[in-house]
Amino acid sequence: MALDSPKLVDLLTSIHNGKLQLPDFQREWKWDDQRIRELIATVTLDYPLGVVMTLETGGATRFRARPLTGADSEGIEPGHLLLDGQQRLTSLYQALLLNKPVRTVDARNNPLEVWYYVDIAKAIGSAADRDEAIVSVRHDTRTVRSTSNTKPPLVVLIDTAAEVEAGLFPLRVVFDLDQYHAWQRAFTEADPSRNWPIWSKFEGKVIQHIKSFDVPMINLGAETTPDAVCSVFERVNTGGVPLNVFELLTATYSGNRVYEQQHGDYYRLPEVWSDIKKGLATAHAVFGSPDSHAESGFTSSDFLQAVALVRTWKLKQQRPATAVSCKRRDLLTLPLNDFDDLAPVVRDAFAWVGEFLADQCIVSPRDLPYRSQLIPLAAVRAILGERTDETQMRERITKWYWCGVLGEMYGGSTESRFARDVEQLVQWVDSPSTIPDTVTESIFVANRLDTLSTRNSAAYKGIIALLIKQGAIDWYFSADPLTAGTLIQYAVDIRQIFPKRWLARFGVPAWQANSIVNKTPLSDRANKSIIGAPSDYLPLLANESGTRDEWFDDIVATHLIDPDLVRADNFDAFYADRKSQLLRLVADAMGKNTYDGEDWEA
């Protein structure tokens, strides 16, 4: 790492001739007009601009480069890549060197093309007024308001004479020697006795500051690793959106010359990922919307972590000292060839995961207990292939999944658990005694049911899915048990059994009314009739669904509810009985007893 302080003009010239470019992971330039004017004022006052950071090219780590916004230097091999300072240097490049209107936005984010000027009279006054001395003029009108009582109220800056008359120096000529001297002559000769003293002050207070302005710069050597680049970028880019691994890999893969020579084009990771996500989301709604380009729901990081787990597991079979891992360094060092080979396998593995989740009656992103738990599950499928469909292994994977959900094992930091679960699940195929830690360590405490009240909890979502999986029938559409398809068709959501408002009349505490014990999955249509006491609304629902009362009681019972207790409006007895039934449901899914704080109970 080297420290330097090049002249601003030298940096801007490097941008213009392509010697200084951006790594492709950098986001677009987007500063607005006000910030640009404030930045120019800073330079004219010779105030500190802040450190910029560059990376020397030519090392083992190659990033695809692109010019800064406005620079016409495609195809030129850069000597350095700009890691930090893009917004500042792009703004100054366009305003001071490009000699084109700057395409920015106004305070309301409306597109705007402007030229930047310095009001000479204001600039030679107090430094405190320097922000007001920097003027932006719309390109389409080139019109400014005059501050003189002896001149027209509006001045059109159609040429140098008009600019001189308005006393506005065009910043686009500050580094162009010929144009600068031509403008200077025009200004001083317009009124020599008056303008020469003014120009002398202006040159000393403004122009010399711009021309001699130093930019403190840290230059990282070509030997800097991708992990270090990513870490440095995240630390210095505190004002922007944090850089993620996917963006860094995008730039790294697109700079892979071997691939480009073999295929005649560079590797487009965003397009590959977009196709993968769209395909998965089209087939399985749990992965999100196929039309969404946002990194929400199932993300590129999830996919990359699964690929890394599979890759490091395979490497460990050849070199036992290798650790199965999916930490950031594993993603940043993921070779393009390995990713290209494994991506289709991992994609198909996630498609299998989508089918597995549907079998567990989890079909939407909001009802997915843990997105992170899908990562090791997909990796295991990619490693074992169809062996995961064998009855015994399917049962073990299902048990592992529900232990993870109901034991709430996948909250917080999970990367080390990913690796352990992948190795232990794979070993579990042939070694029944190698039980994954997620299974052995998981515990469900009985009183946890009292505190489960919202979708914020994985266990809450899991219990609702288990109720559907074990055969719950809707109270209005009562022909068959709910399925993955009818959940969406009937707009099934989580509804209260004893209405909260009715319970409040009898002093039932809110925690009990809101507990999952008092909730169940029902259609929107059924929920419309759940008003008042259960003894009132159950006969109404039976009648609306065309079902005899005694048969309707059997339907109610599919939700692990004692219909007699509900029809009697006996909330306390209902709560105790349903809590007991839900605990048995949890115990069956986890393959172990629940814990009441003192003794284990079935």
What does this structure look like?
The radius of gyration is 34 Å and the shape is elongated. The two termini are 63 Å apart. Helix 1 (8-16) crosses helix 3 (86-96). The chain is built from 29 helices and 16 strands. Strands 1-12-3-5-2-4 form a six-stranded mixed β-sheet. Strands 6, 7, 8 and 11 form a four-stranded antiparallel β-sheet that branches. Strands 9-10 form a two-stranded antiparallel ribbon. The protein has three domains: 1-243, no CATH class; 258-399 and 410-423, no CATH class; 448-601, no CATH class. The chain is of the alpha+beta class.
Shape: elongated
Structural class: alpha+beta
Mean pLDDT: 90
Strand order of the largest sheet: 1-12-3-5-2-4
What's the number of structural domains?
Answer: 3
* Number of discrete helical segments: 29
Low-confidence region ranges: none
What is the subunit arrangement here? single chain
Instruction: State the helical fraction.
Output: 40-55%
Biggest β-sheet description: 6 strands, mixed
Task: Give the SSE map.
Elements: E1 2-4, H1 8-16, E2 20-23, H2 33-44, E3 52-56, E4 65-66, E5 80-84, H3 86-96, E6 102-105, E7 111-119, H4 120-123, H5 130-133, E8 134-138, E9 143-145, E10 154-156, H6 160-166, E11 168-170, H7 177-190, H8 192-211, E12 217-220, H9 226-236, H10 245-254, H11 257-263, H12 269-283, H13 300-318, H14 328-332, H15 336-359, H16 374-384, H17 391-406, H18 415-428, H19 437-441, H20 448-451, H21 458-469, H22 484-489, E13 493-496, H23 500-504, H24 510-514, E14 519-522, H25 524-527, H26 534-544, H27 549-557, H28 563-567, H29 571-590, E15 594-595, E16 600-601
Helix pairs in contact: 1-3, 6-7, 7-8, 13-15, 13-16, 15-16, 16-18
